[in-house]
UniProtKB/TrEMBL annotation, chain A:
Bilayer-crossing regions: 22-42
Cell compartment(s), UniProt: Endoplasmic reticulum
Highest taxon of the lineage: Eukaryota
GO molecular function list: heme binding; metal ion binding
SMART domains to which the protein is assigned, alphabetical: Cyt-b5
Domain Cytochrome b5 heme-binding stretches: 62-164
Protein name (Swiss-Prot/TrEMBL): Cytochrome b5-like heme/steroid binding domain-containing protein
Keyword tags: Endoplasmic reticulum, Heme, Iron, Membrane, Metal-binding, Transmembrane, Transmembrane helix
Organism of this sequence: Schizothecium vesticola
TrEMBL record, chain B:
Domain AMP-dependent synthetase/ligase: 160-243, 308-550
UniProt protein name: AMP-dependent synthetase/ligase domain-containing protein
An MF annotation (GO) of this entry: long-chain fatty acid-CoA ligase activity
Alphabetical list of InterPro entries matching this protein: AMP-dep_synth/lig_dom, ANL_N_sf
GO terms under cellular component: endoplasmic reticulum; membrane
Amino acid sequence: MDYVEKRVAQEAAKVASTTTEFLTPLNLILLGLFLWTTYTFLRPASPYLVPADPHATIFKVFTPRTLLPFNGENNQPVYLAVRGRVFDVSSGRSFYGPGGPYSNFAGRDASRGLACGSFDEEMLTKDLDGPLDKLADLTPDQLEALQGWEDKFTDKYLVVGKLVAVGDEKTVKRPSACGFA
Amino acid sequence: MTFFDQLMLQLDEGVTGLFGQWNAYSTLIVCLLSGFITFQVLTRREPDTHPFLLARQARGSPVRQENESPVYRSLAAPHGMPLNSGLNVKEPGASKWARGRDGDLRDIWRQVVAGVQDDGPTKGAKGRILTVLGTEHVTEHSLDAITRQINLVGQHILDQGGNRVGIYLPNSVEHMVTLFACAFHNLTAVILPFDQSDESVVSMLRRSAVDTVITAPGSFPFKNVVKSYPSLRQLIWVVDEGSAHMDWNEVPQGTGSSVNVSTWQDIVNEPPVDAGKELPPIAGQKEPRDVTIFWQSKPGTMEEMVRFTSANLISAISAQLFAIPTSQRIGPSDLFLPADSLANTHTLVLTLAALFCNASVAFNSAAAQANDLAIATRGISPTVIVTTPAALLKTHQEATHTGSSFIAQKLHWLQTRSLTQSGVMPIASALSSYYDRFRPAIGAKPGKLRLVYAAERVGAGTPPLSSQVLSDLRVFTGARVIYALTAPTVAGAVTQTAFYDYRVFEDKISHFGAPLSSTEVLLRDAGDVKNEDGKSRGEIVVKGPCVAGGEAALGVNGYMREDNTLAYL
C-alpha cells in the first residue's frame, strides 16, 4: 500500500499533458495491432490439407514359394492363403505374426488347418513346389467350418492376391480383385 | 531499494508512461479495431459444406491391379457396398422404412401421377408439365391428359404391330409421352438426335432397325426414308395446331404404300374421352425393355449407337437424386427446364429424375438448338436447368462484357471471395443489389434459378469450362453450377462436381468432381502414361450398374487430383 500511495502521489504531481500527435508509440502499437487483425481476417484462407491416403497394395499372383517370406519377420506384412485367395492379416499380427499362436499359418496355405481346426505342422502342404492342396478328402463338416472361416476372413481382412501352384503363374489371366457388387 | 523493487518501479513507470500517451487518435483506432472484429464475427457465415469433405471427395480401393490405379468410388458408395442401382420404389401404402424395388420408367410416371408420397408439408403435391411456345406462350398439360396420350399412343403402335419405335422429335411433351408409352406397352424406344442431315437419319434408322417413327413434319426426310429404308411400317406425325387442318395421312405419290401414316392428334382425339384413363396395372407387367440412344461426337463422324437397359437408366437416375443434399432436393416447388437435347442421356436422366421428384417440368423445343440460356428460358422462370457448355460460355461472355466497369469488377471480386474464401453463395445485400444490373437475363423473373447442370461430352469437342468460368457463372446467375463428365456408353454422368464445391483453380478445363454413387472409376495404364504408387493416371475406365455392358473405357487420359477428383490429363 505504501508503494501504491507513493506512486499515485508521484503521478499526481506530474503536470497533466496530452499529446495530440498521431505518431506516439502507443498509437503505433495500436495501429500495428489493427493492421495485423485486419490482415489475419481478410487474408486468403490456406487450402485445407488432408493427409494422403495410404498407397494401395498391388494385387499379385503368389506361389507357395513366393508367399513364404510374408510371415511377419523382417518387417514384412503377414499374409496367409485360404482356398486360393491371399489375405493380408497384418492387423492380426498378434495372432498370425511371429510368436503368435497361429504363426504356423503365416506365409502358407491355411485352408486345411482352418477346416480341421488344427494348427499342427502336418496341416500345411509339405512340398512347396508341388500342386496346391485340393482339399478333396475333407468331410462336409470340415468344409462348412472352412467356409465359415473364409467368410470371417473376407469380412475382416483384405484380399491382396491369388495363390497358384509353382509353374501356373503364367496361365493365370488378369486376376480380378474387386468389381462392383 | 532492492534490485527487484527497482525493476518493478521501472516497469510500472514504463507502462504508465505508455498509456499516458493515450489521445483521441488512440480511441479512434481502438474503436475501429473493435468495430472491425465485431463486424467480422457477426457476419461470419459457416461454409456450406465442411472443407474436409471437399479436400477428399472419393475413396480409392485398398488393393489395385498392377497396371491400374485403385478403383475410386464416391464417399456415398463405400467399397464393399453395392453401387446405387435402383429407385427404391414402394407401393403407396408401404411404410417409409420398407425396402422398395429397383423400379423402371413406368414407376417414374406412376410417381408423377401419384404425387409426393412422403408425409410432410408437400404430401400429395404434383408437378406440372408445361410447354413453352415462342417467347410468351406457356401451356400447361394436365397429368390425366398426358396419361391418356401415353395409353392411346402406346396401344395404337401395338395394334399396328410396332415393336421398335424411333423418336425423332425436339424436346417436347410428345417426346416424353412416347418414351413412357414405349415403357408401358413393352416397346423398345430408340431416341434419335434431332435436326440431323438426311443421310444421318436414314443411317440411324437402318442401324437401329425401327419399324415405327414418331416425328414432326418439316424435319423428317420422308421421301428419302421411304425409298432407302423399306422396313419402316408406321409413321406418326406430331403436327402443331397451325397445320392440323391439312391431310397428313396422305403418302406422297410414287412412294411405297407399305407405310401406315397417321397423326398424333388423330390417335389421341379419335377414341372416346374415357378411353385410356387408367395406366396398365403393376401386377403382371413384363420386364422393361431397353432404350437405344445415339451418341453424337464431332460433327462429321458417325453417331455411336448405344443400347441401355432399363436398369442402366434407373441406376443413373437414382445416382443423380443422391448427388443433391437432402436440404436442396428437387421438389414440387421447382421448375425444371432441359435446355439441352433429350437425346443426350445426361439430360434425359436428369429430366426423369426431376419427374420422379414431382417437380414441374417445362419443355421448349427451340431450347436445345438455340445454345443460349436467355432464349431457352423465355416465358418461364426455371429453378433448375440442364444446358450445354456452349450456352454457358455464351452467357459468361455476355455477362463479362456487360460488367466490365471498375466497380462491377470489384463487386464481382467481392462476391467471388464469398464463394472461394467463405465457401458460401453470395447473399443479396445492398451492395450486391447494385451488381444485379450486370446479371444475365435468365428467366422471366430474375433470381429464381438455383441449379445449373452442364456436361462435358467425351470426344465430342464440347468447349471446356475452366473452374474460374464456373465460379463466375455462380456469381452471375446466383445459382450453383454442377459440371459433369459424360460418355457414350454411360447413362447419366461418369463423375460430377460436388453440389457445394465452389473452389477455383488455375486450369483450362475444370476438374470433373468425384464419381457418382452409381459409378466407379479407375485409370488404366495407356502407352506412356503409367500409374504409380500415389499417382493415379491413365485411360479413364468406368464400371457400374449404369454403364452399358458393365465396363467402359472412355478413350481419354485422365488423372486423380489430390482431392480425388477426376481431371483430364
